[in-house]
Design a protein that fits this description.
Cyclophilin; eight-stranded mixed sheet; 14% helix; six-stranded antiparallel sheet; alpha+beta; 21 strands; disordered C terminus
Amino acid sequence: MINVLSPGLLTTVQDGGRVGWQRFGVPVCGAMDNYSLRLANRLVDNAPEEAALEVTMLGPRLRFEEPCVVAFAGGDFPLTLNGVSVGRGQAIAVKNGDELEIGAAARGVRGYLAVSGGFDLPEVLGSRSTYVRGGFGGYEGRKLQSGDDLPLRAPAVWLQDMANRRADPWLLDAPLQDRPIRVVLGPQNDVLSREGLDAFFYGEYTVTAESDRMGCRLKGPAVSFREGLDANIISDGVAMGSIQVPSGMPIVMMADRQTTGGYAKLGAVITADLPLMAQKRPGDMIRFDRVTPEEAAVALRRMRRKLENPDFLHEIW
């Protein structure tokens, strides 16, 4: 059991997402930064997309009522165990009565605290992810509050090779890279003017304060449409990373996005770069690069290979 002493700004239970239910109008949800979720879970020997705590900007203070092993990955958050600083990106054995505090992020927005064995919470439509707007999943369908008790499923108190359960700093900081975010065009890029696409790929955008788990709203050069056309389309499915342009300003749809939408989508952020998108905070600047679907597939394979490599060897995505 883990007792929540202080919940932080926005702490929810998230896993790999509620896949397969969009056709019924149920959002996927899940971790905004799936890469960091997988990394934290790997460090504590969980399945890659096991449920963990997703913290946003300011983390919680937790008291452990039983021993277990934890690991934290994602944004650059300070961690203290019983008042003593501990590093992120490593497996940490905690004892009954220990208190872990996750402070305010110095870089990035979101972090993931994985616990060996995972949380003993019910699955809703095959997932333990929290959908706050819908009020289901996770812990009572809401963000954590002071006094909540999170039950654990048979946690390990020690794992084999604990000293080496540590992520290379370069691997840990991969979602915090400051580089252009790659985009594949489609499916409605044909309604945009050439000048509009040039503005998007040659311009620079700022993440606005209206961004959240549903979408990342950007401010910058307006994306124009071809003469006689606009953003309205017959509603179709919305994938994570889809870039809508309802009024010329791009919105990157994220984990809690709606299942369908009636606005043109100029393209989508590639899966390998979604972690970078998830770690952008209001005020951050973003540039975009155009890539092919084949290049996107190569980047995803490289990202997954980095996580699967037992030595965490460096490889450019």
